[in-house]
């Protein structure tokens, strides 16, 4: 059954209430009425409405009081004020308090229906935007950034400290480490979460177009500028702008960006008019900006302005202990998106994922898992199912066999096999721990002294 749009009519004159109720009811709306402001507040406390039509001059609680209460409690609800005593002052006050429209008696019913339709459309758009923002906030919660390693925990702690500030942030890290994900998490968990998040990749836009994209232009500013256009900074007003690959920005635009940051105002290309802004700036780069400054390719004053609070994201090879968590997360995500039962990863395949260096970092892993899920027929991902540069072909098969050797009728030397497994895993742990025995022991879940004894007994070179 289709849900009818709900409208509340408030008027102390019975014939007005009945006429409006019949008119809107016949147009297919679900209508409720109230004879006073007090009754209306009781009804609103029990049930929200998409549109409220209220007489301005009510005894006791008047139309402006109703308007303020509705906008405080139900921001998505639109209010139409009706009165037989129109004045410029009351109209201005009503619109200032957030009224959708202000109409006078006697009114044209057809025009009123048009206004109600527009008010409903706006209410639904506001409600939909609020829902989408809630979805985004859920998507970009801090705990959606996967990892338990000390390196990523340091990032979490830094994010938590700065999330409710307006400080300029520079996110540093290799390509694919999740710089935009961190920027969105900071925005959607902070005070600006209900305002725009606008991202622009400075390296993906030709230099001659980047100025217009960032700062906007007026009609006739250049060939093809057929209309005024706001730039990304204006679109992000009261919210956050994310400047990705900031290190690729041409020098002449760096100067203009510095001026925008210093003065908090922007000037469109071709215009002499400046517009005040309230924008938080988060930028990101995979380049070494200090080196770029030394080489004269990046302005030193802009670097220090952007680098007020730096966040260094570790590469995936620097937090290998998070690889299993990430792999299972992306596996679950891909299986859900492809409507497949949840798959598993064999020990050999997981070992292959853990030893791979991941030059494309987390983004590369997500793509690899998605592709592997799409191309694997069975319910378990084996080493052979992974791309050849990761699975390693026969070598991976041999390591998988070491991890889980097959017992044949000829029997197996259990002591020798266990020693080989120990030798293999200790070497892995030492490699992950960069030769530090205490860290390797921690990865293996044993004491350092136990590890040292095993290294000696197994003849492992360290």
Draw up the topology in text.
Elements: E1 6-10, H1 14-26, E2 30-34, H2 37-46, E3 51-55, H3 63-73, E4 78-83, H4 88-96, E5 101-104, H5 109-139, H6 150-162, E6 169-172, H7 179-188, E7 197-201, H8 207-215, H9 232-235, E8 240-244, H10 251-263, E9 265-267, E10 274-276, E11 280-285, H11 289-294, H12 300-306, E12 309-312, H13 323-337, E13 344-345, H14 347-355, H15 361-375, E14 380-381, H16 388-391, H17 394-403, H18 414-432, H19 437-444, H20 448-458
Parallel strand pairs: 1-2, 1-3, 3-4, 4-5, 6-11, 6-12, 7-8, 8-11, 13-14
Antiparallel strand pairs: 9-10
Keywords:
13% strand; Helicase, Ruva Protein, domain 3; Rossmann fold; 4 domains; alpha/beta; 5-stranded parallel beta sheet; 462 residues; 14 strands
Write up this protein.
- The chain has 462 residues and is an alpha/beta fold.
- It has four domains: 6-135, Rossmann fold, CATH 3.40.50; 148-312, P-loop containing nucleotide triphosphate hydrolases (Rossmann fold, 3-Layer(aba) Sandwich), CATH 3.40.50; 317-403, Helicase, Ruva Protein, domain 3 (Orthogonal Bundle); 405-462, Arc Repressor Mutant, subunit A (Orthogonal Bundle).
- It is 49% helix and 13% strand.
- The protein contains 20 helices and 14 strands.
- It has helices spanning 14-26, 37-46, 63-73, 88-96, 109-139, 150-162, 179-188, 207-215, 232-235, 251-263, 289-294, 300-306, 323-337, 347-355, 361-375, 388-391, 394-403, 414-432, 437-444, 448-458; strands at residues 6-10, 30-34, 51-55, 78-83, 101-104, 169-172, 197-201, 240-244, 265-267, 274-276, 280-285, 309-312, 344-345, 380-381.
- The strands form four sheets. The protein has a five-stranded parallel beta sheet with strand order 2-1-3-4-5, with helices on both faces. The chain has a five-stranded parallel beta sheet with strand order 7-8-11-6-12. A two-stranded antiparallel sheet has the order 9-10.
- α19 packs across α20 (448-458).
- The chain is elongated and about 100 Å long.
- The model is unreliable at 394-401 (pLDDT under 50).
- Residues 145-374 form the Sigma-54 factor interaction domain.
């Amino acid at each position: 059954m289709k849900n009818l749009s709900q409208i509340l009519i408030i008027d102390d004159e019975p014939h007005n209430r009945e006429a409006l109720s019949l008119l809107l009811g016949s147009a297919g709306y679900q209508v409720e009425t109230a004879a006073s402001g007090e009754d209306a507040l009781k009804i609103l406390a029990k049930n929200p409405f998409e549109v409220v039509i209220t007489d301005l001059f009510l005894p006791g609680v008047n139309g402006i009081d109703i308007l303020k209460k509705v906008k405080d409690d139900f921001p998505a609800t639109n209010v139409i004020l009706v009165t037989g005593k129109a004045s410029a002052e009351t109209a201005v006050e009503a619109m200032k308090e957030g009224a959708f429209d202000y109409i006078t008696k006697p009114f044209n019913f057809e025009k009123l229906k048009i206004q109600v339709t527009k008010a409903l459309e706006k209410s639904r758009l506001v409600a939909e935007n609020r829902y989408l923002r809630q979805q985004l906030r859920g998507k970009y919660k801090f705990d959606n950034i996967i990892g338990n390693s000390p390196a990523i925990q340091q990032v979490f702690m830094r994010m938590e400290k700065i999330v409710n500030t307006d400080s300029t942030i520079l996110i540093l890290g290799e390509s694919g480490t999740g710089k935009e994900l961190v920027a969105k998490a900071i925005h959607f968990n902070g005070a600006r979460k209900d305002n725009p998040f606008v991202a622009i990749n400075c390296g993906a836009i030709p230099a001659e177009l980047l100025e217009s994209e960032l700062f906007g232009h007026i009609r006739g500013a250049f060939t093809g500028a057929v209309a005024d256009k706001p730039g990304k900074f204006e679109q992000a007003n009261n919210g956050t702008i994310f400047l990705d690959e900031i290190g690729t920005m041409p020098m002449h635009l760096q100067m203009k960006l510095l001026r925008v940051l210093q003065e908090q105002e922007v000037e469109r290309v071709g215009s002499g008019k400046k517009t005040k802004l309230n924008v938080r700036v988060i930028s990101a780069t995979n380049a070494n900006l200090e080196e770029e400054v030394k080489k004269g390719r990046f302005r030193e004053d802009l670097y220090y302005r952007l680098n007020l609070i730096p966040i260094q994201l570790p590469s995936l090879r620097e937090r290998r202990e998070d690889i299993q968590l990430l792999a299972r997360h992306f596996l679950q995500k891909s299986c859900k998106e492809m409507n497949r039962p949840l798959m598993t990863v064999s020990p050999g395949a997981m070992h292959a994922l853990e030893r791979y260096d991941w030059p494309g970092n987390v983004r590369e892993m997500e793509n690899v898992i998605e592709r592997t899920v799409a191309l694997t027929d069975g319910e378990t991902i084996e080493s052979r199912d992974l791309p050849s540069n990761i699975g390693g072909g026969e070598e991976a098969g041999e390591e998988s066999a070491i991890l889980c050797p097959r017992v044949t009728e000829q029997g197996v030397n259990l002591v020798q096999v266990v020693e080989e497994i120990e030798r293999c895993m200790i070497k892995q742990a030492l490699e992950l721990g960069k030769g530090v025995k205490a860290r390797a022991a921690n990865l293996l879940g044993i004491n350092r002294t136990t590890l040292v004894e095993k290294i000696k007994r197994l003849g492992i070179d360290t």
